[in-house]
Amino acid sequence: MSKTPAYAAASAQSPLAPFSIERREPGAHEVLIDIRYCGVCHSDIHQVRDEWGGSVFPMVPGHEIVGVVSRVGSAISKWKIGDVVGVGCFVDSCRHCEACKEGEEQFCAQGMSATYNGYERKPDGSLDTMRPTYGGYSSRITVDENYVLRIPTGMPLDRAAPLLCAGITTYSPLRHFGVKAGDKIAVVGLGGLGHMAVKIAKAMGAHVTVLSHSAGKRDDALRLGADDFLVTHDADVFKQHAGRFDFILDTISAQHDYNAYLGLLRRDGTMVLVGVPDPAPVHAFSLIVGRKRLAGSLIGSIRETQEMLDFCAAHGVASDIELIPIEQINAAYARMLKGDVRYRFVIDIASLDKAAA
Ligand code: NAP
Ligand code: ZN
Ligand code: ZN
User: Fold this and answer.
1) Could you give the CA distance from residue 152 to residue 315 in angstroms, rounded to a whole number?
2) What are the start and end residues of each CATH 3.90.180.10 domain in the chain?
3) Alpha carbon distance 18, 199 (integer Å)
């Protein structure tokens, strides 16, 4: 076991504050990773504030982790000391349910071991509720070799970190629902997920429109590669652009009217929800008229996450970030809640090591 500096929330009402956790020595099939950077996802805020229910405290958030392998277990051949690696939203799964066998571990029937606010597993694959997981707002993490991703050579490490959640969460539905060159797609909400969706969809050749409630993001949207930008507090937008899009990816973190956005789909179009706000009603007519589809998508598998990293490397795609020291994490949360992030906060974990020294 090694004592490891971290930042944790003690309860849903507490700010994040310095904390100490134990990381285990890597087992035969595990690696120990020295964390260099960790992205700040809106899911961190939802869970720290217990907005989805069932949060486990104290909580060390962080599931956009990039670091360097510093120790390897005795049976490891896939990784060596010095490898640059990533860890995303889960660190284990049962390995024998249908989803796990099909390489869709994020849908593990027994529940994935979320990187934080989850549980480690017992040898039989079931969740061990005595052992909570702690995420990337920490200096080190011990992870099974099969749940580690390779960061492609040449990718800037800080700008790669957000790919581990924001990247895969947007890449996966674009791929799964077959978005292709020339498709007219809309990305709703230009935050951490939204800006990655714009870049990835453009790299796939789609015609991308950003729908935002922040008029001031127009120039950024176009710079990020969007072809068009619409401000949604102008109600006329929903009339003028009715039936325009083949595919809509909804990344909004706050409650909003899904029906209004469904009206923007063409006949047989698909809208995929990835944002997880408080519930809001969907009217049957919003789907019936036009035979539209409403779907959801959860991060992506290990195989697909590696595919996404390689795709991003091949297309020169990485996140636009604001690098912060760990001491600014509470201020960063407050800014994210105001939609004020360009476009992902990433924690420089060296600041945590320094503070703990
Ligand atoms: P983020 O960086 O905070 O971005 C969210 C964006 O939503 C904001 O930038 C803003 O875009 C828009 N928005 C915020 N408040 C709004 C409001 N009141 N009305 C309309 N639009 C609003 O968050 P994120 O990290 O991208 O995460 C987005 C959501 O996805 C969160 O709910 C998160 O938990 C969820 N998520 C889901 C998965 C999954 O697997 N499904 C994975 C990761 C995250 P504009 O300023 O452009 O309007
Ligand atoms: Zn996330
Ligand atoms: Zn499983």
Assistant:
1) 12
2) 2-165+300-307+318-356
3) 35
Q: Is the dihedral angle over the CA atoms 159, 160, 163, 167 positive or is it negative? A: positive
Q: Which CATH number fits domain 2-165+300-307+318-356: 3.90.180.10, 3.40.50.620, 3.30.930.10, 3.90.420.10?
A: 3.90.180.10
Return the pLDDT at 1: 73
CA of 339 from ligand 1 middle (Å) equals 8
Question: Taking the CA atoms of the chain, what radius of gyration do you get in angstroms?
Answer: 20
Amino acid at residue number 118 = G
Q: Residue 135: phi, psi to the nearest 5?
A: -95, -155
Mutate to test the pocket of ligand 1, among 251, 308, 321 (most ligand atoms within 8 A of CB): 251
* Distance between Cα 281 and ligand 2 center (Å): 24
**Amino acid at site 21:** I
Q: Residues with Cβ < 8 Å from 212, sequence gap 6 or more?
A: 188, 189, 190, 194, 218, 221, 229, 230, 231, 232
Range list for CATH 3.40.50.720 in the chain: 167-296
Which pLDDT score is estimated for 356? 77
For tokens 């989803």, the residue is 99
- CATH superfamily to which 167-296 belongs: NAD(P)-binding Rossmann-like Domain (3.40.50.720)
User: According to the model, what pLDDT value does residue 11 have?
Assistant: 98
How crowded is residue 247: how many other Cβ atoms within 10 Å of its Cβ?
24
If residue 354 lies in a helix (H) or strand (E), which one and from where to where?
A: helix 350-356
SS3 of residue 230 by DSSP: strand
CB of 213 shorter than 6 A to ligand 1: yes
Query: Does 305 sit in the ligand 1 pocket, CB within 6 Å?
Result: no
Condensed to tens digits (0 to 9), the pLDDT of residues 277-298 reads 999 999 999 999 999 999 999 9
Which atom of ligand 1 approaches the CA of 45 most closely? 34
Q: Render pLDDT for 20-30 as a digit per residue (tens, 0 to 9).
A: 999 999 999 99
Low-confidence ranges of the chain (pLDDT < 70): none
What pLDDT is attached to residue 204?
98
Choose among 55, 132, 138: nearest CA to 329.
Answer: 138
Ligand 3 center–CA 85 separation, angstroms: 23
